[in-house]
Predict the 3D structure of the following.
Amino acid sequence: MRNVPPLISHNLFGSLSDLIFHFDDPMSLTTIAIADDHPVVIEMLKRLPQWEPDFLISHCCNSGEGLIDALTRSPVDLIVVDY
């Protein structure tokens, strides 16, 4: 598991280049899990790799239970959830 500094807040509709992570291996992909009950939000977030090629969407879930199940099988670096 890589060490990632905590993020206080970020507007997902702003520039993703504002997010700076300091990983042990800067050439590796940042794996992401998405959990949201709105399909349109999931579809929008699944397009992140188009703008940020260092991101890899590993899991897309429509419930917290689905997210927990996916993460038990395969952990990720970053989780985006519906508040």
